[in-house]
What we know:
By secondary structure, this protein is mostly helical. Helix content is 74%, strand content 0%. The protein has one domain (5-94). It is elongated and about 45 Å long.
Amino acid sequence: MNSTSPYFALxxxxxGKKENxxxxxxxxxxxxxxxxxxxxxxxxxxxxxxxxLGKEYPEELKQNPIGxxxxxxxxxxxxxxxxxxMKVNAVAGxxxxx
Length: 98
């Protein structure tokens, strides 16, 4: 398995595909995932998936936890993305299309 395979497995999971994530979580380098997601503009999507992982795979995350500092940074970025999306949606909803 090459080094990008876990990222793509996680992305599939984030998009709603049901698959066993135990091995992916166990071997995940969370800092590297954050870097990858940031470069690819996928931080929000990946954070939503991580929130799901916390509910569906709590034991696996206890074995390979995301560091508190990284999790707080990621959470902050996800909130910024949500706020920005709400602003864009509000502007798009209030504008008239010809």
